[in-house]
Write the structure tokens for this entry.
Amino acid sequence: MNIKIFIAITATLLCLSNASANTKSILAVGWELWYPYQYHNNQHELVGLDIEIFNKIVKKAGYNIAYTELPWKRHLQYIKMGKMDIAMGASLSKDRTEYAYFTKPYRKEQVKLYVRKGTRQNIILNSLADLSKSNYMIGVEGGYYYGKLYKKLILQAEFRAHISEVIDLEENVKQTLKGHLDGFLVDPVTMRAFVEKYKLFNEFEEHPVEIYQDEIYLMLSKSTMNEDDLARFNDAIESLQQSGELFEINQQWTSLQASKR
């Protein structure tokens, strides 16, 4: 083979190899104050459910990262432009897949019905729709998303008559403790943090009725990351799921039974 041709082929292969590998030494990751998923504790450390899980994943995948605080809408724009590499806590949507890779889901987003401890068996609800024909009153927070079914049901006057809308979780907790509400809707991570903060151990329990659940993913910018990076993150997530580590972290942040006493 002509030596010039050999050198040209070798150079081309090296360029292709470099193009398929992410050579960035530090990946830029955005975060936004979203208690208790992403926040600073009293020691000014960045903590939360998403932070703890993501740190595990990125360590397993073998990357170095740098966190930057910025609003979610700007974060998505930076992912699209390639100014940021990764976003946590993302829901999958068709338009986002045009500019970002989505990893395997690393946790679930949930909404549960919480009631006074010891009353769960007395509240007969097999589905959220059953509330319309019941005598129960359930609290919700204005502006909160409770899933497609709730969004559909709340348009019906018969269902709306059993819903009490307030501005925050604290009010729903107070009204339930006073007996004015039979329960309230909230995500388990927020509920766990509230119980810890106000020392309400052994006051509430989850009702088994299904309200809302969806998968949550990591987004990798297609401008700065590639399919090899996606595979490494997916392998890390799968490994942590199989070892039970992700389940343990989720339990620590969501289970009322795991709360300190």
About this structure: The two ends are 76 Å apart (CA to CA).
